[in-house]
Design a protein that fits this description.
Blueprint lengths: L1 E6 L13 E4 L4 E3 L16 E5 L5 H4 L5 H5 L6 E6 L1 H11 L12 E4 L4 E3 L5 E7 L5 E8 L2 E6 L19 E5 L7 H7 L4 H10 L4 E5 L13 H7 L3 E3 L5 E3 L1
Parallel strand pairs: 3-4, 4-5, 5-6, 10-11, 11-12, 12-13
Antiparallel strand pairs: 1-2, 1-14, 2-3, 7-8, 8-9, 9-10
Helix pairs in contact: 5-6
Length: 247
Amino acid sequence: MKLHFLGTTGYHPNETRQTSCLMLPELGLVFDAGTGLFRARDLLVTTTLDIFLTHAHLDHTIGLTYLFDVLHRRSVQQVVVHADSEKLRAIEQHLFSPLLFPIKPPCDFRPLVGRSRETKSGATVRWFPLDHPGGSLGYRIEHQGRSLAYVTDTTASPGADYLDAIRDVDVLVHECYFPDGYEDRAALTGHSCATPVAEVAKLANAKRLYLVHLDPLEEETRRIDLDAMRLIFPETHLATDSMAIDI
């Protein structure tokens, strides 16, 4: 299974990064629908598409308004958007208010029920709560003995409640909005600094760590110290837009 990073920044796009979006094309799975979702068009290979949202903030959902172009002249027969029921209601009422976007895209909204779902591609998707203003979800995906966890919009710490949910994953994709030194800002906004993210990956016994949801200004003013993170967790990598990796 191959993971494509379609968007790796948070809040707003910059010259090199779009906002949050991950895709597993052969499984027909997308996680978050930020501005990077437009890139999914060239990767569609299944007749169904399941989009799992972590939460409803605009940098994770605005791409839903791009679905008309993403699906244009493609053979996708069904698109289902999965999220917490409260978040789906907010998206339907506000993002797709006729005053903002006059026609709802060709997709169904399906609230998440329970703790896991089997997809048509045979993958198991599990979700777990994250601490973030307004609430967020993390995801763990398992397919044919391989595993991936996606954790964004939360404040990493060695005592994080989600550690057990991501334990022993082959690939951990984790947000890292701030470098070290911005701990107060991270706690206030529900985001993560670098060292705690590396500590989480180590404690969870992940095989590899990829950093996403980076500060869109970080190339200019706030650089993540990868060398310092690798002293804690050697297999730490900075994800970039359009990167593709094997899980």
